């Protein structure tokens, strides 16, 4: 009988420690995502206040992600993540106390969400760059697939848990649980032992000015066609396609499918498909991962067409499950490719550009989806989204360096080469 615990968790104790802490934190985030709007409404806030609070959490992504990438390439990444967890623990803890005591007001929520979002902006580039320091190169795909599995499972478990907590303990109680998960994650990070790295002499360039390091990070992106092309296509997916899920899908469900219950079926089906995709990414070895990722992104970009198709709900849910498989495969393979082929000393900076162009710009698409659909109609807007997003994904398959990118850096071609990395000789 095969062991139930995945091999990468059995064989890599530092990754196992990181994985457990981050898994609890992800679950808390899923709970918070559901509970936060109800927190605004519970204190008498309006729909506009809900949007304001959500924007307050997202805006720091635009302002601080690149800063976080530079710092994560200069200092120990797990320490940046530890500080970020402690800040988020404090923000969510204060927010939960204010809600439970009846002292919360919308301006307090806005300020605390700005603080939370700022910590988030520093956490994400450090997190991506940390994985290669606790997992050997040949296990990166497995590690990222397990992380993706937790994210996908949270889509299914988190909302159900959040609904129960909000009903029993109110939004303040639900957010208190999220605060606790950050404290637990910080405890695991404080015990983490990370492989120390010193950049090779050829990779070190004198001069540590912030803008110089930022430019060096962008040079790493620009010098790899497969990286900047992949970022562009994934940005289109986030800015053009995801509003069909977050904005127009619920609107269509409310007017044509019978309301939230029907939409929850579609969301749950997507979550189940995502879990299947993560399992596939864990178990299947792929010789040309980015070619598969590009094809998967094209399938994922059909979500708007599926949602607006007018097909029976059961068929829409089944097709959304297929796109869930594709989404998980795409992003596990993309993150693994970055960790494999981008020099470790620049990985967090490259990752910060990735996050800026995707999560950072996504609010623009969310803001435009409503007005555009009011002008064109919901279904025509969904079809237009498909006409933009699917060709952008398919265009990736026209990039030779992306199609041919190998799974392992040892056999990389010239497409994996890049300019010298601005880095410190050692991390404090």
Automatic annotation (TrEMBL):
UniProt topology in membrane: Multi-pass membrane protein
Pfam family, one: MFS_1
Superkingdom of origin organism: Bacteria
Residue ranges of the TM segments: 50-71, 148-169, 225-248, 260-282, 289-307, 313-334, 355-376, 382-402
Subcellular location: Cell membrane
CDD domains: MFS_MefA_like
Protein name in UniProt: MFS transporter
Keywords, sorted A to Z: Cell membrane, Membrane, Transmembrane, Transmembrane helix
Main location: membrane
